[in-house]
Amino acid sequence: MSHTLAIDVGSSSVRAMVFNEQGLAQKDIFVQKPYQSKTTPDGGVMIDPANMNEMIFACIDEAIEQTTQAKLTINRVAMDTLVGNLMGMEADGQPTTPIYTWADTRGGGLVEKLRPKVGDYTRRTGCRLHTSYWPVRLLWLRNEQGAAFDQTRYWLSLGEYALYCIFGQRRISLSTASWSGLFNRHQLTWDDETLEHLPVTADQLSEVANTPFEGLPDEWAQRWPALKDAAWYPSVGDGVASNIGGDCARPECVALSLGTSGAMRVVVPGTPEETPDGLFVYRIDADRSLVGGALSNAGNLYAWLNNVLQTGDKDALQQAVGAIEPDSHGLTILPFLAGERAPGWNANAQAVFMGMTFDTRPEHLVRAALEAVAYRFYQILRRLQPLLPDDVQFIANGAGLINSPVWMQIMADVLGAPVYGSGEAEATIRGTAILAMGVDLPPSLGDGCQPDPDHHAIYQRAVERQQALYDKLLR
Length: 475
Description:
Blueprint: E1 3-9, E2 13-20, E3 25-34, E4 38-39, E5 45-47, H1 49-69, E6 74-81, E7 87-89, E8 99-100, H2 111-114, H3 121-125, H4 134-144, H5 146-151, E9 154-156, H6 158-167, E10 171-172, H7 174-179, E11 183-184, E12 189-190, H8 192-195, E13 207-208, H9 218-223, E14 231-232, E15 236-237, H10 238-245, E16 253-258, E17 262-269, E18 280-283, E19 288-295, H11 299-309, H12 314-322, E20 332-334, E21 352-354, H13 362-384, E22 393-397, H14 399-402, H15 405-415, E23 419-422, H16 427-437, E24 445-449, H17 453-474
Parallel strand pairs: 1-6, 6-14, 6-15, 10-13, 16-22, 22-23
Antiparallel strand pairs: 1-2, 2-3, 4-5, 5-8, 7-9, 11-12, 16-17, 17-19, 18-19, 20-21, 23-24
């Protein structure tokens, strides 16, 4: 039986697991190495490229050791990474910059300067002019980090860099290229119309292809003899992997991801002619696209409230929050602690808590925050609706919903549709392996919540109230 070594580079850790051709994780093979991004007061969020490579390679070391003990043969190596990341590299492979992540908000003031120059940018690329994508990041780097910018020969993502250090070749998958904001999703090439207005050229970007690297160079074959004949696939976007691994590879199954950040995404055939208002369209491959929207504020908002309010016992908090009737706390929250991505793409948006009184308790604030995030997911659903069949189900993955029955029920009531937990505990890293294997596996669903029509009606009014506050303060 063939096996795939999958590596997941998330926003706080690097992990490695092994999956068989049925998409089942192999017992006792698991490596995880946590890390912290460097942040700056002006909105910077960065990762050191050398340290990241060390963690990726160390995860592979330990996974191979565990695999050898289990007497398994690895036929493929696949990787997913947090997307929207960018770094510079000299011709000799030395990094010229840190890895800038999607969460880095610097350069937002350049968006309006670029907008009139790039024409129908969103239709071509499926992306928005925003700090989480490469065009704005590149302009900011030229303006603010001129010496490093001039020293840079190539621009690439962290997954590309890791594989470049192994194979000496630059190759980017369609999904990662599409997530850069520089890829024409209709022509499946780098977008010349955007590049004309940026201080970079297409030859500074990598070859776009999903084809694997083969033939591990001698230096690395000595380190990893078990992988010398394996196929190594270009890294893919974590959002794509999450959909595939969470059994959301069809239009009737919409992925609802809620971890640190959040996203609602659906896989569709081909690519839509137009990009839905406020959403993204990313290519998975030549035959499929991923359509949806991402939220910068989800589980991180809940964690922040727990910390600030010092809520203590999480089980007791969940019970108290669950006892509160829908939208009965008198609060309206705009949950933008980390700016806004979909659907408004306002990098300068900040959080607003309105309606607090002396009667407001911690559980009221937490309940209102969970509902507020659900309302932002509903705004994405409104825009996705024309692409969806009549009968859809939402499949949740990520600790935010899976570990909170209260939040999952709120989500079902707000969306007005069933929400099921994914039967796969490790959706993203599993999806990375499935994409490399090229198989289509049957779905596996966990427990779910059915919507309450009365609660849905209450939340419809609350959605409109939140949107009215948004329009008044942030438009």
